[in-house]
């Protein structure tokens, strides 16, 4: 916070302090006299004496209220209110002592005093505590000195209520103080912005006056300034008809000057609601100077966005409207792109939240389907088909979760040098049957000389698949999809293609269709999560959102161009790399997976636990299964020397997998450990989990057996869940 703002806030607080102290003192004087009516009923025997007390304190508070107005200084005000607080507390105590002392219900006056002092006066925390301490001390010490405690419960209850009132009032003081500080800070900022706006308005007014004076001196000089201005300038008559425009205004709209003169201003502006232009003109002519944004039509049918500064001026004794038009189209495009990037982050929370539990379910489905197929007596072909259907559906569901995680960047990607042409060819071959069924022809125009890119082939396939499927859906009567790859070395022209595109070398993937095109009103929404124009049940709205997320994860950009009835073109710009494409890595051997070692499995999901137990026991392993990590701790302490391998889930209640691994390693450092979860395995290394391998859920029995055998044979896998 700068010094000017601090000074402003301190001045405002001091003003509020003086005001509220005055209000509380007046209110206190009134309440002391008003509550005197209570003495008639509660203490008739002491009424005369109490009324004297009340008159004295009321007069004292009134005097302090007058003194409070005399001077505005923080310590002075604090002194005033602390004196008033002390006098008020003493007055109340003088009425408490003769009415039962520690049992008197007049102690409630102390509560009212605390509420009034702390609740309304903008004290600092220290002064608030001092004020409350004075009140409590005035109540407590006279009772301890002059009163005999005969009813400890009542005494303790009264003290408890006073302390509780203090805590509540102090909490309210702290909260209201923060709120007040925030409000004053905002008020200061608003005043500053208002001052800046006023300064801008004043400068604009001075500029208009200066230009008017120059016009009377030299028409030639005026024309030079008017026509060579960087912003478009238009002068309108009171009806909104353009009487003169400068060269820049005509250039921005694509018209000749002669075509604009005499035309009404509303013909250019894209009107969002009926009557908006006429209403604005009326306000400006009434003396209101305003700055607003508007979208205008161009001669070629395009649109341009302006920041327009407008003010009424006098020309020859007749009111006119002068407007300055600054082209902010590129600025708005950049804002839209940045806003789009921020929206893509919002889906991450949703995707990451469901992954673990859903992958547990899928692991159980896949595993038990495999166990059923392996252990059951010979099944007929219909039963085998049904089991395969279950497995295929579970795998597809797992792929959907993986896509969500990839889109949300909650899962890691294997970024290696890759040839985009190979990915394109493989994807088109995979989609060939789908395209034929839709009467769509795919044409490949690939540049064989393109360099490699750093990317995840599976994620790149998702980009191509979604764009091709969307293109096919946009051609219900059939058509042609053209898939192109090309190399582009973009220099200073990169931002012209896309506001966020940096200069450099790119491999460009272009997918164009001859479909119905995308309407202008929804073109800006196509990358939004869950936005779809398809019928219910035929689209999730995640396709293009996922494409956008994957492109951004590859440090690229995506550009879309479309006209209704003329098709759509998507251009994906991916940074090129000089690194060569890696050769395929040979799959590890899956032979000799049987064993007789002792394996402890820990997972709170019983269905996953039973699948793993059945699978390992079928290969000869001795399995100890625990669905409770606390129980697993007891088992390991008893059997640590007999257990060869521990397989544990990383996300469990009571004790998580990371803590379980740490405890087991502490008991027996050489024990082999396999972690499993639906989250990114890279997070485990970041969290310091020491494991020998990681199983990514959902996984099948063959993956489990391979990982177990390799770990027991001391073959460390970088990512066994991704193989097979």
Give the SSE layout.
Layout: H1 3-34, H2 36-42, H3 47-70, H4 74-96, H5 108-120, H6 125-146, H7 152-217, H8 219-227, E1 232-236, E2 242-245, H9 247-253, H10 257-260, H11 276-285, E3 290-297, E4 303-315, E5 318-327, H12 329-375, H13 381-407, E6 416-418, H14 420-437, E7 440-445, E8 452-455, H15 457-473, E9 479-490, H16 494-497, E10 504-513, H17 520-523, H18 543-553, E11 557-563, E12 567-577, E13 598-602, H19 606-618, E14 622-626, H20 629-639, E15 645-649, H21 657-667, E16 672-677, H22 682-686, E17 693-696, H23 701-712
Brief account:
The protein is an alpha/beta fold and 724 residues long.
Description of the molecule:
With 724 residues, this protein is α/β, with parallel strands linked by helices. It folds into five domains: 3-189, no CATH class; 221-327, PAS domain (Beta-Lactamase); 332-407, Helix Hairpins; 416-577, Histidine kinase-like ATPase, C-terminal domain (Heat Shock Protein 90), CATH 3.30.565.10; 598-722, Rossmann fold (3-Layer(aba) Sandwich). 55% of the residues lie in helices and 16% in strands. The strands form three sheets. Strands 6, 7, 8, 9, 10, 11 and 12 form a seven-stranded mixed sheet that branches.
């Amino acid at each position: 916070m700068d010094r000017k703002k601090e000074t402003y806030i301190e001045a405002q607080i001091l003003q509020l302090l003086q005001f509220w102290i005055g209000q509380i003192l007046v209110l206190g004087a009134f309440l002391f006299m008003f509550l005197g009516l209570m003495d008639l009923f509660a203490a008739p025997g002491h009424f005369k004496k109490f009324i004297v007390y009340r008159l004295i304190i009321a007069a004292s508070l009134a005097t302090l209220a007058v003194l409070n107005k005399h001077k505005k200084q923080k310590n002075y005000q604090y002194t005033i209110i602390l004196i008033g607080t002390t006098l008020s507390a003493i007055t109340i105590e003088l009425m408490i002592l003769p009415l039962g002392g520690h049992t008197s219900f007049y102690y409630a006056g102390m509560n009212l005093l605390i509420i009034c002092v702390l609740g309304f006066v903008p004290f600092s925390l220290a002064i608030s505590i001092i004020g409350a301490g004075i009140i409590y001390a005035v109540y407590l010490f006279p009772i301890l000195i002059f009163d005999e405690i005969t009813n400890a419960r009542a005494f303790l209850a009264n003290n408890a209520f006073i302390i509780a009132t203090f805590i509540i009032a102090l909490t309210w003081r702290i909260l209201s103080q923060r709120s007040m500080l925030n409000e004053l800070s905002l008020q200061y900022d608003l005043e500053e912005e208002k001052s800046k706006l006023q300064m801008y308005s004043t400068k604009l007014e001075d500029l208009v006056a200066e230009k008017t004076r120059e016009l009377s001196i030299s028409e030639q000089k005026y024309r030079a300034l008017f026509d060579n201005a960087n912003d478009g300038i238009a002068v309108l008559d009171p009806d909104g008809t353009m009487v003169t425009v400068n060269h820049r205004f005509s250039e921005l709209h694509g018209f000749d000057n002669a075509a604009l003169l005499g035309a009404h201003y509303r013909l250019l502006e894209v009107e969002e609601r009926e009557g908006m232009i006429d209403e604005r003109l009326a306000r400006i002519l009434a003396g209101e100077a305003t700055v607003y944004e508007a979208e205008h039509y161009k001669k070629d049918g395009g649109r341009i966005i302006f920041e327009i500064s407008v003010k009424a001026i006098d020309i020859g004794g007749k009111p006119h409207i002068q407007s300055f038009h600054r082209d902010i189209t590129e600025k708005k495009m950049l804002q839209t792109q940045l806003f789009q990037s921020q929206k893509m982050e919002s889906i991450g929370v949703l995707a990451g939240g469901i992954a673990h539990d859903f992958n547990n379910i899928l692991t159980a489905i896949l595993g038990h389907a495999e166990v059923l197929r392996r252990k059951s007596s010979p099944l007929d072909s219909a039963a085998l088909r049904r089991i395969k259907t279950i497995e295929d559906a579970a795998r597809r569901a797992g792929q959907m979760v993986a896509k969500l995680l990839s889109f949300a960047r909650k899962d890691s990607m294997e970024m290696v040098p890759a040839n985009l042409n190979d990915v394109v060819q493989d994807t088109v071959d995979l989609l060939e049957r789908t395209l034929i069924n839709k009467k769509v022809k795919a044409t490949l125009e690939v540049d064989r000389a393109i360099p490699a890119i750093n990317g995840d082939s599976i994620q790149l396939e998702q980009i191509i698949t979604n764009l091709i499927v969307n293109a096919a859906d946009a051609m219900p009567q059939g058509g042609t999809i053209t898939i192109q790859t090309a190399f582009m070395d973009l220099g200073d022209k990169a931002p012209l293609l896309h506001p966020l595109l940096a200069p450099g070398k790119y491999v460009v993937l272009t997918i164009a269709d001859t479909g119905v095109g995308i309407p202008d009103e929804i073109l800006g929404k196509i990358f939004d999560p869950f936005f779809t124009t398809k019928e219910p049940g035929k689209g999730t709205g995640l396709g293009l959102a996922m494409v956008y997320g994957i492109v951004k994860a590859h440090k690229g950009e995506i550009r879309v161009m479309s006209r209704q009835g003329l098709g759509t073109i998507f251009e994906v710009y991916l940074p090129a790399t000089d690194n060569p494409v890696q050769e395929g890595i040979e799959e590890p051997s899956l032979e000799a997976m049987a064993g007789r070692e002792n394996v402890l499995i820990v997972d709170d999901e019983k269905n996953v636990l039973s699948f793993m137990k059945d699978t390992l026991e079928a290969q000869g392993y001795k399995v100890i299964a625990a669905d409770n990590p606390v129980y697993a701790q007891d088992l390991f302490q008893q059997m640590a020397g007999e257990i060869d391998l521990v397989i544990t889930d990383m996300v469990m209640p009571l004790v998580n997998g990371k803590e379980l691994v740490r405890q087991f390693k502490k008991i027996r450092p050489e024990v082999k450990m396999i972690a499993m979860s639906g989250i990114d395995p890279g997070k485990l290394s970041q969290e310091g989990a020491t494991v020998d391998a990681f199983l990514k859920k959902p996984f099948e029995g063959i993956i489990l057996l391979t990982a177990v055998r390799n770990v027991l044979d001391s073959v460390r896998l970088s990512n066994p869940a991704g193989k097979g």
